[in-house]
Write a sequence for this structure.
């Protein structure tokens, strides 16, 4: 499976940001700016900087970003970043609220993708400590590592270790 392309897992189609159309890139930008209150990078992102950033992903093996489709409708954007041989950070933001019920299913697939296809040993995430998504991560076995302060807000860093076989 080429992870820098388009692929399907179960009923979801993952489309790498570098393969997106202009309209899809604009959709992702709109969602990034709409969800920035939950992100470390809270400045408004311009179209120009967004397009340059997507272009930079072509040669960056430390990041994988996808727009995910269900029923041919884009509903969630996911990212793996700071990828190395053993671990990566990850995150997502919902684009289409009509697909909220898919979050648990897609998180399970995101974890499987990290451990089975990226061969990582550990998956990390950082979220605003007030974000309800922390409970979802705990449901999947993520443990709280530490709290950090960014932008005068408290963030929770969580980790999930790959099960040893």
């Amino acid at each position: 499976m080429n992870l820098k392309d388009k692929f399907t897992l179960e009923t979801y189609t993952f489309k790498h940001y570098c393969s997106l159309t202009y309209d899809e890139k604009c959709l992702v930008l709109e969602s990034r700016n709409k969800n920035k209150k939950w992100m470390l990078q809270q400045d408004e992102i311009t179209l120009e900087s967004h397009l340059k950033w997507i272009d930079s992903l072509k040669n960056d093996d430390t990041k994988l970003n996808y727009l995910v489709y269900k029923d041919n409708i884009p509903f969630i954007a996911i990212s793996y970043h700071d990828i190395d041989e053993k671990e990566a950070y990850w995150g997502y933001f919902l684009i289409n609220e009509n697909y909220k019920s898919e979050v648990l299913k897609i998180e399970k697939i995101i974890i499987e993708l990290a451990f089975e296809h990226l061969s990582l040993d550990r998956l990390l995430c950082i979220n605003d400590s007030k974000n309800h998504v922390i409970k979802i991560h705990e449901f999947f076995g993520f443990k709280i590592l530490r709290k950090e302060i960014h932008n005068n807000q408290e963030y929770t860093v969580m980790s999930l270790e790959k099960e040893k076989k």
